[in-house]
From TrEMBL:
One of its GO terms (molecular function) is RNA binding. Keywords: Repeat. It comes from the Bacteria. It comes from Paenibacillus tianmuensis. This is Transcriptional antiterminator, BglG family. It holds the Pfam family PRD. Residues 74-179, 180-286 form the PRD domain. One of its GO terms (biological process) is regulation of DNA-templated transcription. PANTHER family: CRYPTIC BETA-GLUCOSIDE BGL OPERON ANTITERMINATOR, PROTEIN GLCT.
Length: 290
């Protein structure tokens, strides 16, 4: 986009968001900037290097353009306004540049959440405990966002929904898709259930054992999904010295590999053995002495 080019304003989305067209290239852009929409009302063009523009992104393909147009036509303007306030809050508390998809995903999520809450539909979040432990800063921002939503739409936003908003906050600053966060969280829960089944006892959710286990599982799943390699120099010793822990770690590896449709490296299984050893000592050791 040339710096001195005039862009045609196609739509004032909100006080802070414009949709524009570069007539020469035929490309559509979304421009973001505090008050840029409000001050552009009644104007047909804006300079490409206007100092009010804080962020811009291009709708790269037909599907993305169609998605954004559909979003604009279906979303309550108040939802867009609240979404902007929440995004401003995220921007103010993280130094990382935000993932552009938050401008699509967050209003869409809030619109559907408001619909469900207004119509008495339950929102159940099976990952709430894990979300609180993994993303405490994002959770506090989501709690503030829930208060904005509650005030704007005169509804009570339950804690389960705050957990889902937390995923959107984390996705905005990490560029990890919300769908991936949900998938990985679900897989952590499956893995914990397998461990508890083998132990024959639940792991208290407020214990350090649980915190260490789910934290390790989450990071292991992320590494495996993204083919990040770790080395474990004690792998052979673990296999011979801790056969029961290795057997369970191999089961976990099979579960994770099946869900992610990939191979789980032996080194990752070795690190699982280390965490399982502590659990075996705590839970199976206690049972054997009781």
């Amino acid at each position: 986009m040339q710096a001195n080019r005039l862009l045609r304003i196609e739509r004032v989305i909100s006080n802070n968001v414009l949709m524009v067209l570069d007539s020469d290239s035929g490309k559509e852009y979304v421009l973001l900037g505090k008050g840029i929409g409000f001050s552009s009302k009644g104007s047909g063009t804006i300079e490409a290097k206007d100092p009010r523009i804080e962020k811009r992104f291009r709708l790269d393909d037909r599907d993305q353009m169609s998605e954004y147009h559909t979003l604009l036509e279906g979303i309550d303007p108040e939802v867009i306004r609240i979404s902007e306030r929440i995004i401003d809050s995220i921007n103010g508390q993280f130094s990382e540049p935000l993932n552009n998809k938050v401008y699509f995903a967050l209003p869409s999520h809030i619109q559907f959440a408001v619909y469900r809450l207004r119509n008495g539909m339950d929102i159940i979040n099976p990952f709430l405990q894990e979300t609180l432990l993994w993303f405490p800063k994002e959770y506090e921002i989501a709690r503030s966002a829930a208060a904005m939503i509650s005030e704007a739409f005169d509804i009570e936003v339950p804690e389960d929904e705050i957990g889902f908003l937390t995923f959107h906050v984390h996705s905005a600053v990490s560029s990890v898709p919300v769908g991936e966060l949900v998938k990985f969280s679900n897989l952590v829960n499956e893995a914990v259930a397998l461990v508890e089944s083998e132990l024959g006892a639940p792991i208290p959710r407020d214990s350090m054992d649980y915190v260490r286990l789910i934290t390790h599982l989450r990071h292991a799943i992320e590494r495996i999904a993204h083919s990040k390699v770790v080395r474990n120099p004690f792998m052979n010793e673990f296999k011979t010295e801790y056969p029961e822990e290795y057997r369970l770690a191999s089961k976990l590896g099979s579960l994770i590999g099946q869900r992610l449709e990939t191979d789980v490296p032996e080194d990752e299984i070795g690190y699982m053995v280390m965490h399982l050893y502590r659990l075996f000592q705590t839970y199976l050791g206690e049972r054997s002495t009781s």
